[in-house]
Specification:
By secondary structure, the protein is α/β, with parallel strands linked by helices. 36% of the residues lie in helices and 26% in strands. α4 runs parallel beside α5, α7 packs across α8 and α13 runs antiparallel to α14. The chain binds NADPH dihydro-nicotinamide-adenine-dinucleotide phosphate and L-homoserine (HSE). Its EC number is 1.1.1.3.
Length: 430
C-alpha cells in the first residue's frame, strides 16, 4: 500500500507583532503539532512584519522571523494574518495578498467597517477566503454564528456591549467612585485603553463592530458612517449614581434592528435595568444578544479584548482557512442580497430618562407633562427630589417613542420658563 505523502506546509505571514500579534505568533509556534493535525497541514510561520524590528519583543518571538519588509513577506504566502490595525498599509497589503492567491485573516474592524466590501469583492474574485472573527468582540464567536449558523434564520435584532474599555470605565464609575477621566486613566494603566482613547470613548470602535454585525445579520451593506454614534464622553458620575438609584446601570450599547421599514444601527450609552443580563456584564467583558425568529434569543458572552483572547479567534480562522487550502472549499462570501434601506437615526424607537431641575412651584409638573403629551410622548414614571433652594429635581421616564419625537419633546421642555436645566437625557434599553 502506498505511504501517503505528508501534507505540504502552509506558509503563514503575520503582519503585526503587538498585543494581538505576539499572542498569535506564540500560539502558532507553541501549538504547531495540534494545529497541523486540525488544519491538515503544518502551519509554518514564515515571518512577522513590524514597523521597527529592533524593538524589544516578548521572548517567545524568534528575532529571525521579524522583518520590516511586509510586501516581500506577503508575496508567496498561503495565509496572511493582518493584526497591524489602521487603514493603510493594512488595506494595500491585504489586497496584494488576496491578488497573490493567499487566504486572509484580519482583526481590523476599523478597516472592514470602512472598506470591507473592497476586500470581500477582491477575495471573491480571487476565490480565496477572508475571515475576521476577531474583528467583533475579541474572543467571542459571534461573526461565525451570525454569518453561518443563523444563515437559515431571520435575525431581527442584535444588541450588545462590544467595547471592553468603555464597559470597564462605566463599571469603575459605578463601583469605584471614579469620574470619567479617572476611570479612563485607570483603563490606560491596565492596558485596556490606548494612549489616545478616542476610538473607544467616543464610540468609533463599537460603531465599526455594529456595522459589521448589522451587515452580516441583515444581508445588507452597513458601513461605519451609517451608524448613529454617541460615545460615553458626556456621562457624569452623577448620571451613573442616578442610574443606580433608579434601578439601572449605564452601558455603551450597540443596537442593530430590522423593522418593516429598514435597518437601523446605533451606538450610544443607555440605561439598562439592573436585572437585565447586560447590566451584569462587568469589567472589560463583552456580551451580545441576538434575536432571531426561529432561534429566539441567543446570548454570547466573553472577553472582548486582550492579546490571548483575540489571538484565539484569529488562530481559529487560520485553521478554517488552512483546511480549505488542504481539502478544497471556501468560506462564505459577502451576502448583501437583501439591500434593506438604512433608516435615519431619528427613526429609531426608544425610551428616554430625563433629569431636569425645575422651579418648585405649583403646576410645574403639569406644565412639563403637558408639553411631553403634546409631542405624542407618553410618560411612564415621574420621580421628584428636593426641593432645595426653591428648585426640585424631576426624573421622567417615557414610554417608547420615535427618537425624533423624543428629541422634539426635550427641545420644547427646555424652553419652559420654570425649567432651570435639563441635567441629563439618557435612553433606556433592554
Ligand atoms: P498594536 O498597536 O499592539 O500592534 C500593532 C502591530 O502592528 C505592531 O507590532 C506594529 O509594529 C505593527 N505595525 C503597525 N503599523 C505597521 C506598519 N506600517 N508596518 C509594519 N508593521 C506595522 O495593536 P493590537 O495588537 O492591539 O491590534 C491589532 C489589530 O487587532 C487592530 O486592528 C485592532 O483593532 C485589532 N484588535 C485588537 C484587540 C486588542 O485587544 N488589542 C482586540 C480585537 C481586535 P511595531 O511593534 O514595530 O510597532
Ligand atoms: N479597544 C477594544 C475594546 C478592543 O476595548 O473593546 C479591540 O476591539
Amino acid at each position: 500500500m502506498p505511504v501517503p505523502e505528508p501534507a505540504r506546509g502552509l506558509r503563514v505571514a503575520l503582519l503585526g507583532c503587538g498585543v494581538v500579534g505576539t499572542e498569535v505568533a506564540r500560539m502558532l509556534l507553541e501549538q504547531g503539532t495540534d494545529l497541523a493535525a486540525r488544519a491538515g497541514a503544518p502551519l509554518e510561520l514564515a515571518g512577522i512584519a513590524v514597523r521597527d524590528a529592533s524593538r524589544p519583543r516578548d521572548a517567545a518571538i524568534p528575532r529571525a522571523l521579524l522583518t520590516e519588509d511586509a510586501e516581500s513577506l506577503v508575496a508567496g504566502a498561503d495565509i496572511v494574518i493582518e493584526v497591524m490595525g489602521g487603514l493603510e498599509p493594512a488595506r494595500g497589503l491585504l489586497l496584494r495578498a488576496i491578488e497573490g492567491g493567499a487566504a486572509v485573516v484580519t482583526a481590523n474592524k476599523a478597516l472592514l467597517a470602512v472598506d470591507g466590501p473592497t476586500l470581500y469583492k477582491a477575495a471573491d474574485s480571487a476565490g480565496v477566503d477572508i475571515y475576521y472573527e476577531a474583528a467583533v468582540a475579541g474572543a467571542i464567536p459571534i461573526v461565525r454564528p451570525v454569518r453561518e449558523s443563523l444563515a437559515g434564520d431571520h435575525v431581527r435584532r442584535v444588541l450588545g456591549i462590544v467595547n471592553g474599555t468603555t464597559n470597564y470605565v462605566l463599571d469603575q464609575m459605578a463601583t469605584g467612585g471614579l469620574d470619567l477621566d479617572g476611570a479612563v486613566r485607570q483603563a490606560q494603566e491596565l492596558g485596556y485603553a490606548e494612549a489616545d482613547p478616542t476610538a473607544d470613548v467616543d464610540g468609533y470602535d463599537a460603531a465599526a463592530k455594529a456595522a459589521i454585525l448589522a451587515s452580516l445579520a441583515f444581508h445588507t451593506r452597513v458601513s461605519a458612517d451609517d451608524v448613529a454614534r454617541e460615545g460615553i464622553r458626556g456621562i457624569t458620575s452623577d448620571d451613573v449614581a442616578w442610574a443606580a438609584r433608579t434601578g439601572h446601570a449605564v452601558k455603551l450599547l450597540a443596537i442593530a434592528e430590522q423593522t418593516g421599514e429598514g435597518v437601523s444601527v446605533r451606538v450610544h450609552p443607555a440605561l439598562v435595568p439592573i436585572d437585565h443580563p447586560l447590566a451584569g456584564v462587568k469589567g472589560a467583558f463583552n456580551a451580545v444578544f441576538v434575536e432571531a425568529d426561529g432561534a429566539g434569543p441567543l446570548m454570547f458572552y466573553g472577553q472582548g479584548a486582550g492579546g490571548r483572547p483575540t489571538a484565539s479567534a484569529v488562530v481559529g480562522d487560520v485553521v478554517s482557512a488552512a483546511r480549505h487550502r488542504v481539502l478544497g472549499g471556501k468560506g462564505p462570501q459577502e451576502s448583501t442580497y437583501a439591500a434593506r434601506p438604512l433608516l435615519p437615526p431619528d427613526a429609531a424607537v426608544t425610551r428616554y430618562q430625563v433629569r431636569l431641575r425645575v422651579a418648585d412651584l405649583p403646576g410645574v409638573l403639569a406644565q412639563v407633562a403637558g408639553v411631553v403629551g403634546d409631542h405624542g410622548v407618553s410618560i411612564d414614571t415621574v420621580r421628584q427630589t428636593g426641593p432645595s433652594e426653591g428648585t426640585a429635581e424631576l426624573v421622567l421616564t417615557t414610554h417608547a417613542a420615535r427618537e425624533a419625537s423624543l428629541a422634539a419633546t426635550i427641545a420644547a421642555v427646555r424652553t419652559l420658563e420654570p425649567v432651570r436645566e435639563i441635567t441629563s437625557v439618557l435612553r433606556v434599553e433592554g
